[in-house]
Amino acid sequence: MTINPRGYPVEPGTALAAMTGLTRDALAMIRFVALAEIGARVALGAAIEQAMAGTTPAPLHIGLLVNRADPIATRVGLAPLRIGATIAGVTAVLVAL
């Protein structure tokens, strides 16, 4: 999935909707870091900023919040999304553990 420079998912897919129990429309209106448990949000935000600056951060382990259910242990990999010489956002890969 893609995270835009403001921190929101770009056209969230059905896989993320299924993981979180939220609709794709709802996901498009929520900053990506808000999907993580509170204790992981600062580290996740810093990793997104690092990727926006052009560096690939180390993968993170977070608790992904799920609507009306317990959080899911999730590994998140982030990388800068480059279009030519410009960083247009962040590519994120989420794997439930």
SSE map:
Blueprint (H helix, E strand, L loop, with lengths): L1 E2 L5 E2 L3 H7 L3 H5 L9 H15 L7 E7 L2 E15 L2 E11 L1
Antiparallel strand pairs: 1-2, 1-5, 3-4, 4-5
Structural domains: how many: 1
Beta-strand content bin? 35-45%
> What is the global morphology?
globular
The CATH class: Alpha Beta
Helix content: 25-40%
Q: What is the assigned CATH homologous superfamily? A: PAS domain
The number of distinct helices, counting runs of at least 4 residues, comes to 3
Query: What structural class do helix, strand and pairing data support?
Result: alpha+beta
Summarize the structure.
This protein has a single domain (2-96), classed as PAS domain (Beta-Lactamase, 2-Layer Sandwich). The chain has helices spanning 14-20, 24-28, 38-52; strands spanning 2-3, 9-10, 60-66, 69-83, 86-96.
Describe the structure.
By secondary structure, the protein is an alpha+beta fold. The chain has a single domain (2-96), classed as Beta-Lactamase, CATH 3.30.450.20. It is 28% helix and 38% strand. It has 3 helices and 5 strands, in the order ββαααβββ. The chain has helices at residues 14-20, 24-28, 38-52; strands at residues 2-3, 9-10, 60-66, 69-83, 86-96. The protein has a 5-stranded antiparallel sheet with strand order 2-1-5-4-3. A hairpin with a 2-residue loop joins β3 (60-66) and β4 (69-83). The mean pLDDT is 97.
Descriptive tags:
Beta-Lactamase, globular, 28% helix, 3 helices, 5 strands, five-stranded antiparallel sheet, 97 residues, alpha+beta
